[in-house]
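Re: your question from the hallway

Yes, I did run it. Sequences:
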Amino acid sequence: EPEVTQTPSHQVTQMGQEVILRCVPISNHLYFYWYRQILGQKVEFLVSFYNNEISEKSEIFDDQFSVERPDGSNFTLKIRSTKLEDSAMYFCASSDPKEQYFGPGTRLTVT
Amino acid sequence: SQKIEQNSEALNIQEGKTATLTCNYTNYSPAYLQWYRQDPGRGPVFLLLIRENEKEKRKERLKVTFDTTLKQSLFHITASQPADSATYLCALGYSSASKIIFGSGTRLSIRP
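Structure:
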Protein backbone atom coordinates (compact mmCIF):
# COMPACT_ATOMS: atom_id res chain seq x y z
CA GLU A 1 0.00 0.00 0.00
CA PRO A 2 1.40 3.44 -0.92
CA GLU A 3 2.52 5.56 2.01
CA VAL A 4 3.99 8.93 2.84
CA THR A 5 7.62 8.76 3.94
CA GLN A 6 9.62 11.33 5.89
CA THR A 7 13.31 11.85 6.64
CA PRO A 8 15.00 12.14 8.99
CA SER A 9 13.01 10.44 11.73
CA HIS A 10 14.79 12.54 14.35
CA GLN A 11 16.69 15.80 13.96
CA VAL A 12 18.57 17.57 16.72
CA THR A 13 19.71 21.11 16.00
CA GLN A 14 20.97 24.15 17.85
CA MET A 15 18.87 27.27 18.20
CA GLY A 16 19.39 29.60 15.25
CA GLN A 17 20.34 26.85 12.82
CA GLU A 18 18.48 26.04 9.62
CA VAL A 19 16.76 22.68 9.20
CA ILE A 20 15.15 21.02 6.22
CA LEU A 21 12.61 18.30 6.76
CA ARG A 22 11.89 16.03 3.82
CA CYS A 23 8.81 14.18 2.70
CA VAL A 24 7.89 11.94 -0.21
CA PRO A 25 4.10 12.13 -0.65
CA ILE A 26 2.00 9.35 -2.18
CA SER A 27 2.84 9.40 -5.88
CA ASN A 28 -0.55 10.18 -7.44
CA HIS A 29 -1.55 12.77 -4.84
CA LEU A 30 -1.65 16.43 -5.81
CA TYR A 31 -2.21 18.16 -2.44
CA PHE A 32 0.48 18.35 0.22
CA TYR A 33 0.48 19.55 3.79
CA TRP A 34 2.67 20.06 6.82
CA TYR A 35 1.35 19.77 10.36
CA ARG A 36 3.13 19.78 13.69
CA GLN A 37 2.41 18.37 17.12
CA ILE A 38 4.09 19.71 20.20
CA LEU A 39 4.45 17.01 22.85
CA GLY A 40 1.11 16.43 24.59
CA GLN A 41 -0.78 18.85 22.36
CA LYS A 42 -3.06 18.72 19.33
CA VAL A 43 -1.95 18.22 15.77
CA GLU A 44 -1.81 21.73 14.25
CA PHE A 45 -1.96 22.76 10.61
CA LEU A 46 1.00 24.68 9.21
CA VAL A 47 0.63 24.93 5.43
CA SER A 48 -0.99 23.39 2.38
CA PHE A 49 0.52 23.27 -1.10
CA TYR A 50 -0.99 22.64 -4.51
CA ASN A 51 0.14 23.24 -8.07
CA ASN A 52 3.54 24.47 -6.90
CA GLU A 53 2.23 27.15 -4.62
CA ILE A 54 1.02 27.63 -1.08
CA SER A 55 -2.78 27.43 -0.96
CA GLU A 56 -3.23 28.12 2.75
CA LYS A 57 -1.05 28.77 5.78
CA SER A 58 -1.59 29.21 9.49
CA GLU A 59 -0.37 31.94 11.82
CA ILE A 60 2.41 29.59 12.93
CA PHE A 61 3.83 29.54 9.39
CA ASP A 62 5.71 32.84 9.56
CA ASP A 63 8.66 34.12 7.53
CA GLN A 64 10.98 31.60 9.18
CA PHE A 65 9.18 28.77 7.39
CA SER A 66 9.16 27.88 3.73
CA VAL A 67 8.06 24.92 1.63
CA GLU A 68 9.25 23.64 -1.68
CA ARG A 69 8.65 20.85 -4.13
CA PRO A 70 12.12 20.72 -5.69
CA ASP A 71 11.36 17.79 -8.00
CA GLY A 72 8.51 15.45 -8.91
CA SER A 73 8.65 13.46 -5.70
CA ASN A 74 9.96 15.45 -2.72
CA PHE A 75 8.21 18.04 -0.60
CA THR A 76 10.30 19.93 1.94
CA LEU A 77 9.77 22.18 4.94
CA LYS A 78 12.57 24.57 5.81
CA ILE A 79 12.91 26.44 9.09
CA ARG A 80 15.48 29.20 8.59
CA SER A 81 16.46 29.99 12.15
CA THR A 82 15.13 27.50 14.64
CA LYS A 83 13.82 28.49 18.07
CA LEU A 84 13.37 26.34 21.15
CA GLU A 85 9.60 26.46 20.65
CA ASP A 86 9.95 24.83 17.23
CA SER A 87 10.66 21.54 18.99
CA ALA A 88 7.83 19.22 17.94
CA MET A 89 6.87 16.31 15.72
CA TYR A 90 6.42 17.49 12.15
CA PHE A 91 4.08 15.51 9.96
CA CYS A 92 3.78 15.65 6.22
CA ALA A 93 0.48 14.61 4.63
CA SER A 94 -0.84 14.21 1.11
CA SER A 95 -4.35 13.83 -0.30
CA ASP A 96 -6.28 13.40 -3.52
CA PRO A 97 -8.05 15.43 -2.39
CA LYS A 98 -10.07 14.62 0.75
CA GLU A 99 -8.59 11.78 2.83
CA GLN A 100 -5.28 13.02 4.14
CA TYR A 101 -2.58 10.40 4.63
CA PHE A 102 0.15 11.21 7.09
CA GLY A 103 3.80 10.25 7.25
CA PRO A 104 5.48 8.85 10.36
CA GLY A 105 6.83 12.27 11.32
CA THR A 106 10.17 13.90 12.05
CA ARG A 107 10.90 14.65 15.67
CA LEU A 108 12.70 18.00 15.76
CA THR A 109 14.57 18.85 18.93
CA VAL A 110 16.02 22.35 19.20
CA THR A 111 18.62 22.82 21.94
CA SER B 1 -13.17 30.03 15.80
CA GLN B 2 -14.17 26.39 15.53
CA LYS B 3 -13.92 24.37 18.73
CA ILE B 4 -13.73 20.58 18.73
CA GLU B 5 -14.26 18.48 21.85
CA GLN B 6 -13.61 14.78 22.13
CA ASN B 7 -15.58 13.28 24.98
CA SER B 8 -13.00 12.25 27.43
CA GLU B 9 -9.27 12.34 27.55
CA ALA B 10 -9.17 8.61 28.33
CA LEU B 11 -11.54 5.69 28.01
CA ASN B 12 -10.98 2.22 29.48
CA ILE B 13 -13.13 -0.70 28.45
CA GLN B 14 -13.15 -4.48 28.63
CA GLU B 15 -12.05 -6.52 25.63
CA GLY B 16 -14.99 -7.63 23.49
CA LYS B 17 -17.16 -4.62 24.36
CA THR B 18 -18.02 -1.80 21.99
CA ALA B 19 -16.01 1.39 22.44
CA THR B 20 -17.87 4.60 21.64
CA LEU B 21 -15.96 7.85 21.21
CA THR B 22 -17.57 11.24 20.77
CA CYS B 23 -16.55 14.28 18.78
CA ASN B 24 -18.52 17.50 19.23
CA TYR B 25 -17.96 20.76 17.43
CA THR B 26 -19.28 24.29 17.73
CA ASN B 27 -20.25 26.81 15.08
CA TYR B 28 -20.53 25.85 11.44
CA SER B 29 -20.71 22.26 10.25
CA PRO B 30 -17.80 20.81 8.30
CA ALA B 31 -18.15 19.40 4.82
CA TYR B 32 -16.66 16.18 6.10
CA LEU B 33 -15.20 14.63 9.19
CA GLN B 34 -12.32 12.19 9.46
CA TRP B 35 -11.24 9.80 12.19
CA TYR B 36 -7.62 8.87 12.74
CA ARG B 37 -5.71 6.53 15.01
CA GLN B 38 -2.45 7.70 16.55
CA ASP B 39 0.04 5.54 18.43
CA PRO B 40 2.69 7.13 20.68
CA GLY B 41 5.44 8.81 18.65
CA ARG B 42 3.76 7.97 15.34
CA GLY B 43 1.79 9.83 12.70
CA PRO B 44 -2.02 9.80 12.51
CA VAL B 45 -3.36 6.84 10.52
CA PHE B 46 -6.49 7.52 8.44
CA LEU B 47 -9.46 5.32 9.37
CA LEU B 48 -12.72 6.72 7.99
CA LEU B 49 -14.17 9.82 6.33
CA ILE B 50 -17.85 10.77 6.51
CA ARG B 51 -19.45 13.56 4.52
CA GLU B 52 -22.02 16.02 5.84
CA ASN B 53 -24.80 14.38 3.79
CA GLU B 54 -23.99 10.91 5.13
CA LYS B 55 -25.46 9.59 8.35
CA GLU B 56 -23.31 6.53 8.85
CA LYS B 57 -20.20 4.85 7.45
CA ARG B 58 -18.79 1.42 8.24
CA LYS B 59 -15.51 -0.34 7.71
CA GLU B 60 -14.99 -3.78 9.23
CA ARG B 61 -15.39 -3.34 13.03
CA LEU B 62 -15.55 0.47 12.78
CA LYS B 63 -18.65 2.61 12.45
CA VAL B 64 -18.93 6.38 12.28
CA THR B 65 -22.08 8.48 12.52
CA PHE B 66 -22.47 12.16 11.75
CA ASP B 67 -25.34 14.29 13.08
CA THR B 68 -25.15 17.88 11.83
CA THR B 69 -28.14 18.87 14.00
CA LEU B 70 -26.41 17.77 17.18
CA LYS B 71 -23.01 18.84 15.75
CA GLN B 72 -21.63 15.49 16.75
CA SER B 73 -19.89 12.44 15.38
CA LEU B 74 -19.73 9.09 17.15
CA PHE B 75 -17.01 6.55 16.47
CA HIS B 76 -17.64 2.93 17.43
CA ILE B 77 -15.27 -0.02 17.59
CA THR B 78 -17.17 -3.28 18.01
CA ALA B 79 -15.66 -6.44 19.49
CA SER B 80 -12.76 -4.35 20.81
CA GLN B 81 -9.32 -5.90 21.20
CA PRO B 82 -6.23 -4.86 23.19
CA ALA B 83 -4.59 -4.02 19.81
CA ASP B 84 -7.21 -1.26 19.39
CA SER B 85 -5.61 0.63 22.30
CA ALA B 86 -4.43 3.98 20.92
CA THR B 87 -5.41 7.64 20.77
CA TYR B 88 -8.24 8.37 18.36
CA LEU B 89 -8.47 11.79 16.74
CA CYS B 90 -11.37 13.40 14.95
CA ALA B 91 -10.62 16.05 12.34
CA LEU B 92 -12.93 18.43 10.51
CA GLY B 93 -12.57 19.57 6.91
CA TYR B 94 -14.50 22.45 5.36
CA SER B 95 -13.69 22.11 1.70
CA SER B 96 -12.02 19.61 -0.54
CA ALA B 97 -8.25 19.65 -0.10
CA SER B 98 -8.39 22.24 2.68
CA LYS B 99 -6.59 21.92 5.99
CA ILE B 100 -8.21 19.70 8.58
CA ILE B 101 -8.67 20.78 12.18
CA PHE B 102 -7.94 18.18 14.81
CA GLY B 103 -9.49 17.53 18.18
CA SER B 104 -7.25 16.73 21.12
CA GLY B 105 -8.03 13.02 20.94
CA THR B 106 -9.33 10.28 23.21
CA ARG B 107 -6.88 7.75 24.58
CA LEU B 108 -8.58 4.36 24.42
CA SER B 109 -7.35 1.42 26.50
CA ILE B 110 -8.80 -2.05 26.00
CA ARG B 111 -8.07 -4.37 28.90
CA PRO B 112 -7.99 -8.15 28.37
